């Protein structure tokens, strides 16, 4: 099993602004050092994070990066991402290319008018009470196999990326994240769509709620109090670091996610979940940390 020298976590955001306040990045070395936030002047944008990742790919950094968004859409449950549409992509890479092409005119890796596209919109629950004719699911919407497994294991209420409304929606983060993945394709490996490389950086999808639960949090997993973050880091055998004057839940998620990834990466079983077949990996991917 490969060992990494450094670990990073990106808390992602699909917000339709140039510099979403929900973007955050923290990283740490192997061992017990406190994860450090990476704070560029003016804050992060999605393209700036893409550039940061590509720079580490060019350098061949010995780095495992967790990013908090769904890397694909459900496929296995219906035999297609968009059942009933002839243009439905065959696998995740084709899905990333489709979303990126449809949003090509939107700046900042945003979505632009993708969700108004008559071929795509009917599959989503959208703002304004718009439930597409092909949304096709009661309650919370369709789930990937990894999301259903996360729920079944009691590891958190993983959400459907076909839902784009409500405080817990993750759809916009997922779709903008797919634009990022399309940019990285062929330049920075993404597990499990790509095999784990012998050297250089690797990106994995994570769910920061898993990190919070592994750190002893039960119930509320957002760490809005710095003292709670310090206690969670200690639970993960990580030093807490200096107080963060700009502490918020997104920055806390990035810090805790990096510390959790450092520990989780050394657990062989998490790299080989039983349900993760090669076919499923190519289509839906997997959330690292879900058994």
Descriptive terms for the model:
2 domains; 8 strands; alpha/beta; globular; single chain
Structural account:
- This protein folds into two domains: 6-70 and 184-271; 92-182, no CATH class.
- It is built from eight helices and eight strands; from the N terminus they run βββαβαββααββαααα.
- The protein has helices at 46-59, 92-102, 145-152, 171-184, 208-214, 226-235, 249-264, 278-283; strands spanning 6-11, 24-29, 36-37, 63-67, 125-126, 130-131, 190-191, 202-205.
- The strands form two sheets. Strands 3-2-1-4-8-7 form a six-stranded mixed β-sheet.
- The model has no long low-confidence stretch (mean pLDDT 93).
Average pLDDT = 93
Largest sheet: 6 strands, mixed
- First-to-last CA distance: 17 Å
Q: Please provide the ordered H/E string of secondary-structure elements.
A: EEEHEHEEHHEEHHHH
Share in β-strands: 5-15%
How many discrete structural domains? 2
Give the overall shape. globular
Adjacency order of strands in the biggest sheet: 3-2-1-4-8-7
Taking pLDDT < 50 over at least 5 consecutive residues as the criterion, the unreliable ranges are none
Total DSSP helices? 8
Q: From the helix content, strand content and strand pairing, which structural class follows? A: alpha/beta
Number of strands: 8
- Helix content, binned percent: 25-40%
Radius of gyration: 18 Å
List the helices and strands and how they pair.
Layout: E1 6-11, E2 24-29, E3 36-37, H1 46-59, E4 63-67, H2 92-102, E5 125-126, E6 130-131, H3 145-152, H4 171-184, E7 190-191, E8 202-205, H5 208-214, H6 226-235, H7 249-264, H8 278-283
Parallel strand pairs: 1-4, 4-8, 7-8
Antiparallel strand pairs: 1-2, 2-3, 5-6
Helix pairs in contact: 2-4, 5-7, 6-7
């Amino acid at each position: 099993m490969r060992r990494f020298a450094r670990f990073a976590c990106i808390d992602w955001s699909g917000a339709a602004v140039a510099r979403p306040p929900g973007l955050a990045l923290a990283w740490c070395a192997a061992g017990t050092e406190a994860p450090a936030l990476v704070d560029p002047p003016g804050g992060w944008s999605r393209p700036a994070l893409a550039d940061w990742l590509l720079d580490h790919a060019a350098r061949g950094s010995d780095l495992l990066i967790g990013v908090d968004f769904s890397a694909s859409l459900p496929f296995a449950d219906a035999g297609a991402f968009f059942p009933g549409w002839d243009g439905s992509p065959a696998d995740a890479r084709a899905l990333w290319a489709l979303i990126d092409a449809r949003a090509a005119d939107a700046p900042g890796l945003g979505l632009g008018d993708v969700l108004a596209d008559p071929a795509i919109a009917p599959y989503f629950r959208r703002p304004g009470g718009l439930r597409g004719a092909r949304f096709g699911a009661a309650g919370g919407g369709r789930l990937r196999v990894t999301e259903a497994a996360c729920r079944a294991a009691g590891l958190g209420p993983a959400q459907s990326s076909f839902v784009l409304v409500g405080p817990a929606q993750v759809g916009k983060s997922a779709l903008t994240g797919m634009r990022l993945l399309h940019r990285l394709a062929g330049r920075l490996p993404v597990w499990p769509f790509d095999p784990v490389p012998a050297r250089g950086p690797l990106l994995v999808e994570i769910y920061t709620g898993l990190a919070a639960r592994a750190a002893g949090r039960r119930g509320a997993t957002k760490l809005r109090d710095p003292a709670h973050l310090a206690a969670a880091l200690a639970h993960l055998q990580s030093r807490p670091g200096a107080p963060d004057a700009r502490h918020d839940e997104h920055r806390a998620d990035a810090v805790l996610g990096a510390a959790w990834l450092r520990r989780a990466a050394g657990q062989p079983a998490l790299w080989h979940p039983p349900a993760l077949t090669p076919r499923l990996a190519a289509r839906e991917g997997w959330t690292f940390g879900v058994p």
